[in-house]
């Protein structure tokens, strides 16, 4: 299927590895000019080299840290200089530290709210006037399956990503008439470095081996395995496509059927 986005321009946050890189790669394979960003310049440069070697879309990169006060200004400047404008915004952030509700100190809440919620909303608002003028835009925000079925020992993530649900739904209704869609994509257990880190933390908390924790989690997934970054990226690319113009205000699960909610 031709997704109809050849020549579009996309900014993908936190795309030096994992889920962000998966979406950026999938978009580039559809002919999109993608701007990768993150805190590891060497890795970003290698990713761009690999994407550009495929000869479909085009990739550039910029060093960016969501926790920096100048993040919005710097990333906006990079979009203008490297892309010349924007059609697709993929909001993606790193996850917070594991822990229970009692572990959510005021300092932790404030710190991660800045990077996981405030920066996402502010950046989106920065580009909205341009998308409205164009009459076409895609806003895709990576959240977590924890927003529909809270994940044990991830209280901070469940709380902050949950805030994005109300924001996204409100935004989607406000901009649908401008040809702009806004959706959340909810990863379940997609095999990334983050999953390895969380399994390690859970193993320590439960007094079990990482292999035991991993086996138990896979047993709870109807598909019987972890998802791949490529599978996740493909779904993300479709949600940014021309064909997905009537999908907005939605939460799309990519979890192998793991979530037990309706």
Automatic annotation (TrEMBL):
Matching CDD domains: BKR_like_SDR_like
Stated name of the protein: SDR family oxidoreductase
SUPFAM superfamilies linked: NAD(P)-binding Rossmann-fold domains
Top-level taxon of origin: Bacteria
InterPro entries cross-referenced by the UniProt entry: NAD(P)-bd_dom_sf, SDR, SDR_fam
Organism name: Rhizobium oryzicola
Protein family (similarity comment): Belongs to the short-chain dehydrogenases/reductases (SDR) family.
